[in-house]
Structures are given as structure tokens and as C-alpha cells.
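User: Please fill in residues for this 402-position structure.
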């Protein structure tokens, strides 16, 4: 399927595939022609409970008949409830709700800088990040990510971020100076090629931060909220951050993000220093609480971890059968990456030919991000479609050389 042409009045910032969907059911989407697609993209890890989940639909409809928006100049009871539930189930003491992951990261960056300012060290504003990271599309977050393809054409890079090679602790230690205030990493890089930071390195980052008076900041916008088989990916390492940004799966498709922080890290965020018009509105909070109703049920995360393991094992056999197409499988839980020997757009198109949706990533990787409620049978079906796509690419290559 070809990308949509230039006749649209929309910004030409997306190379959109020429397919449109009108409804969904769990892990499936139905397009405007009535064809069924297996959704292993989940709107880039957003639709954590799939499409049209009954509890989410009923919750949103019920709230829509009450109140949509009142602004944060008043109390929002559902916001207080969601914050309390998050605090009860993670490291954080304080929560600030946003509309997106980019806004959650902006809040995280401001929280870190404001903390050091509030304790008498305004010079400690710089944050160390890792190569390959993706932290958002704002001017600050593209600077934090440091990737030239996102920085090009947007003027001088926002000051205050120092990139070091992926998982290079010696380089990270060398980058720490008098102006350093924090370390920001994704425990599992999604956009960067589904690269997992090993638990022992996350634990060392915690030690380095503590030894140098730095704030440890995690970006779990994509890898959090059950995606790896625990509520948050850093739990696999047995450590906690000082500040964390989350989004995507937190709203199951409704625009929602959050910045979570310890009491200490958030101590500089006083009335008037940060704000949001839409963040934490009653509609979003109703959906956010409905998501927690489901994912916090006993055994939910264990099932995600088990499903992810079965998925990776099945994909390993596909790689064995198609060594000219695939190189390796990466990831954890249901955040899985296939490193390919063909260009990522070609692979994504081959999967679409089999009516399977995937998401491209860096380092020659295609991401497979099914909803967390995906069934074992749907995983088997997805693997079969990936296998057929690889066979089709091999047949086409053979035909060209014949």
C-alpha cells in the first residue's frame, strides 16, 4: 500500500499508509473496506487494553454525561483518586498529570532543574542522556534525545543535555561535572531499536546518582504500565528512580501522561511554577482509573510476561527459518523488536500485506507491540503472518535473480 499523497490539507509530517480504520475489537482493527487487521502496533504501545474494551467504553460514556472539563483551578476528585492509586503502587509520592509523553518529560526535566534551584544549586541544570534515546518532540525533549534527524532544522539545540554512548558507564561517569543535575534514561529504548538496559547497569546508575547527588530519571512512556510484564520496567532491576515520565498505555488510547516523583524530587514544584490546561481533566481521569481497574488485577502482569516469552520463543523459530530476512529478536514482555536484514519500511509493508500492523524503530528494527490483553491464539496468528511475509519476500528475491 502506498503512502497518502500531498493533496491533504494536513501537515506533511507523516508518511501515512493508505489504509483507514473505522472500528476495532480487542487486538483487531476493521478498515473502511471491511477487512480485518491484527494490530501489533497498538498505536505505538498506546492501546494497552486493545480496541473498544467494554470497561473503558462504559467508563468514558458515563463520565461524558457528567462533566468533561473544569481546569485545575478546582479540585478534580477522580484526579486525586488516580494519583493516590499510582502512589500506592509505585515509588512516587507526587503526580502531575499531562496530555502526552512529551509533556510528561518536560515536567520531569523542569522538576529536576527546579529541585536543584530550590536547594541552592541553580547551576546544576544539566542532564545526562544515552545515545539512541527518544524522549519526545518538543524543543527540550529532542535536545534530550540528541538524535540529529529530529534536531535538524529547528535552530540551536536547547542547552542542558549531554549524551553518552548506550550503556557506557565510563563515559557517563566522565560526563558528570559541577553543572550536572540528573541522569535520564529509558530502561528499555523503544524508538532506539528495542534495546534493553541490563538490570545491573540500572542498579549502577542508581548508585552513581546517589554518590554524586544527582536525580535519577526514567522515561517509561513506552516501556511502562505493564508493557514488560511488571507495572514499570525498572522493577526488574529492583531499584527506583527519583522522577519518572509515563504516558501511552496509561490512557489506553485517551490522551494522558504523568510525571511521578518522590517528595524530595518534587519539593521545588510550588504553586504557579508549572501548569496545564487540559492535563488531568475528568474525562482522562475516568479512563486512567478504568485502566488501573484492569491492569492491577492479580496475575495481569504475570500473564503479560508469560505471553511475551512465548512470543519471543516463537519468533526465534521464524528467524531460524528465514536467516536472510531476520537477524535477532529483542525486548521484554510485549515490547518486542525484530532486527531485520531488509529496510524497515519494506518489512512493515510486507507485514501489512499480511494484514498485520507493526511499528518501525531505529537500528533496523520493527517493533511488535500487541495490546496487553492479546490472546495466545492471536500471538500464534501473528507469528504465522510474519512467517508468510518473510516467505513472500524470499520468493520475490528469488524471482528477481532467476
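Assistant: Residues filled in for all 402 positions:
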Amino acid at each position: 500500500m502506498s503512502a497518502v499523497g500531498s493533496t491533504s490539507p494536513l501537515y506533511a509530517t507523516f508518511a501515512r499508509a493508505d489504509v483507514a480504520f473505522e472500528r476495532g475489537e480487542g487486538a483487531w482493527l476493521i478498515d473502511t473496506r471491511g477487512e480485518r487487521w491484527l494490530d501489533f502496533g497498538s498505536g505505538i504501545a498506546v492501546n494497552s487494553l486493545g480496541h473498544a474494551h467494554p470497561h473503558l467504553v462504559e467508563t468514558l460514556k458515563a463520565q461524558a454525561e457528567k462533566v468533561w472539563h473544569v481546569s485545575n483551578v478546582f479540585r478534580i476528585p477522580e484526579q486525586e483518586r488516580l494519583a493516590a492509586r499510582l502512589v500506592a503502587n509505585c515509588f512516587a509520592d507526587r503526580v502531575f498529570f499531562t496530555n502526552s509523553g512529551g509533556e510528561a518529560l518536560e515536567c520531569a526535566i523542569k522538576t529536576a532543574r527546579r529541585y536543584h534551584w530550590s536547594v541552592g544549586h541553580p547551576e546544576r541544570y544539566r542532564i545526562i542522556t544515552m545515545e539512541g534515546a527518544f524522549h519526545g518532540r518538543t524543543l527540550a525533549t529532542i535536545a534530550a534525545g540528541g538524535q540529529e534527524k529530529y534536531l535538524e532544522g529547528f535552530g540551536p539545540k536547547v542547552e542542558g543535555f549531554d549524551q553518552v554512548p548506550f550503556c557506557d558507564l565510563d563515559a557517563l561517569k566522565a560526563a558528570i561535572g559541577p553543572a550536572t543535575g540528573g541522569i535520564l534514561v529509558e530502561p528499555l529504548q523503544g524508538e532506539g531499536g528495542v534495546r534493553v538496559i541490563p538490570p545491573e547497569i540500572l542498579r549502577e546508575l542508581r548508585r552513581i546518582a546517589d554518590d554524586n547527588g544527582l536525580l535519577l530519571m526514567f522515561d517509561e512512556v513506552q516501556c511502562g504500565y505493564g508493557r514488560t510484564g511488571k507495572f514499570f520496567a525498572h522493577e526488574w532491576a529492583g531499584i527506583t528512580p527519583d522522577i519518572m515520565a509515563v504516558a501511552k498505555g496509561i490512557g489506553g488510547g485517551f490522551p494522558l501522561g504523568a510525571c511521578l516523583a518522590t517528595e524530595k524530587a518534587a519539593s521545588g514544584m510550588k504553586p504557579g511554577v508549572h501548569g496545564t490546561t487540559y492535563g488531568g481533566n475528568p474525562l482522562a481521569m475516568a479512563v486512567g482509573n478504568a485502566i488501573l481497574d484492569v491492569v492491577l488485577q492479580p496475575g495481569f502482569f504475570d500473564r503479560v510476561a508469560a505471553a511475551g516469552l512465548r512470543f519471543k520463543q516463537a519468533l526465534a523459530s521464524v528467524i531460524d527459518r528465514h536467516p536472510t530476512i531476520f537477524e535477532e529478536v529483542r525486548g521484554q514482555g510485549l515490547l518486542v523488536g525484530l532486527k531485520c536484514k531488509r529496510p524497515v519500511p519494506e518489512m512493515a509493508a510486507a507485514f501489512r500485506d499480511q494484514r498485520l500492523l507493526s511499528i518501525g524503530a531505529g537500528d533496523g528494527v520493527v517493533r511488535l507491540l500487541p495490546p496487553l490483553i492479546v490472546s495466545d491464539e492471536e500471538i500464534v496468528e501473528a507469528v504465522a503472518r510474519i512467517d508468510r511475509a518473510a516467505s513472500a519476500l524470499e520468493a520475490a528475491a528469488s524471482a528477481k535473480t532467476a
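For context: The chain has a mean pLDDT of 96.
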